[in-house]
Amino acid sequence: MKLKKISFLLMVVFYAQFSLAQEGLPIYSDYLTDNYYLIHPSMAGVANCSKVRLTGRQQWFGQDNAPSLQTLSINGRFGDTPSAIGGIVFNDKNGYHSQTGAYITYAHHLMFSRNPIDLNMLSFGLSAGMIQYKLDETSFLADGFDPIIAGVEQSATNFNIDFGFSYHFLDFYAHATVKNVLKNDGINFNEQGLSYNNLRTYLFSAGNVFSSINSEWSYEPSMMFMYRDATKESIVDANIKVYREMDFGKVWAGLSYRRSLDGAEFQNGNGSGVNSQKLQYFTPLIGINYKNFVVAYTYSYQANSVVFNNGGFHQITLGINFGCRREKFDCNCPAINY
At 277, is the pLDDT very low, low, confident or very high (cuts 50, 70, 90)? Predict the structure, then answer.
């Protein structure tokens, strides 16, 4: 029993790091399934086509109140103009805590190319959104009165903004975003009963696509660095994707490794000492682009010695592209040439 409690507490700590404490849209690995717009607003309308993406994520099958997430996003250009819009709605639930939110995005893309073939583009994006947080305490008082528990469903609605930029040059890309720029109280409290009002998170992504001349194969190594301002938490993703051109479109697969740079300490099972470990996730992913349709699956596995559940985290992504423009850049840039 004691070990189960320790495992549960450790899981809470790690999951808070992994999902950034449920403040806004959680940062998972779904951006790798052709969905960088979920984390970088400057990616709205960057592609040759407008995009709709639907994701469903479920963690720890068989566990009551296990974390789950659903997102729906759409983004595209205003015709042939350099301006674009996008929108995201999401529903995130983790035990007794849940949040529902919606963002709207404006992005602008500046071309520095001397012709419409070579890709040299700088993009800016701004997202504004409303998030409703809920904490259901209605079942907390089953054992009697507690002066610090209200026993009701608490809720709060906050407004926040995200801002970022992207740069694409031929087969190279880089993104930088500041999420939750404004201070919000929400309904999350630390152990001293003080509300966290600094939800600011910094994201940086970079990668390059490599391919031989006339080859049907291409390879995309990339990384993402994430830093949370209030808690000084840092997380790094190292990713690799492989693409194979087909007559009907493209098939691809990849692997992502997530590592927290901050460890969590916990008392070992016999109480004789303190151990520590750092959050680690392995996420294989596979997908197919069939004409204008996209289907992808990701599976995340937590590679730590003490975990809440040995089951993985499953996610399905469905997408459709529409309103495609004829022009395509002469580059290996799957996020652009669709």
Answer: confident
Which region holds residue 249: left if phi is over 0, alpha if psi is between -120 and 50, else beta? left
Q: Residue 21 in 3-state DSSP?
A: helix
Half-sphere exposure of 305 (CA within 13 A, CB side): 10
pLDDT digits (tens, 9 = 90+) for 7-44: 444 444 444 444 444 567 888 899 999 999 999 999 99
Closest listed residue to residue 86, CA positions, set 121, 51, 134? 51
Q: Judge contact between 298 and 289, C-beta under 8 A.
A: no
pLDDT band for 264, please (50, 70, 90 cuts): low
Geometric angle at alpha carbon 131, from 201 and 150, rounded to 5°: 105
**H helices, E strands: number in the chain:** 1, 14
Report residue 310: phi and psi, to 5°.
Answer: -80, -10
Q: Using alpha carbons, select from 78, 61, 71, 58 the residue that is nearest to residue 31.
A: 71
User: For the chain, how long is the longest CA-to-CA vector?
Assistant: 73
Q: What is the pLDDT of residue 272?
A: 63
pLDDT at position 191: 44
Quick check: 232 and 262 in contact, CB under 8 A? Answer: yes
Burial category of 192 from C-beta neighbours within 10 Å (exposed 0-12, middle 13-18, buried 19 and up)? exposed
As a whole number of Å, the end-to-end CA separation of the chain is 53
**Helix ranges (DSSP H) in the chain:** 2-18
Single out the residue of 13, 32, 8 nearest to residue 233, CA to CA. Answer: 13
Q: Cβ of 297: how many Cβ atoms within 10 Å?
A: 14
Nearest residue to 306 (alpha-carbon basis) of 336, 338, 274: 274
Distance CA 250, CA 242 (A): 10
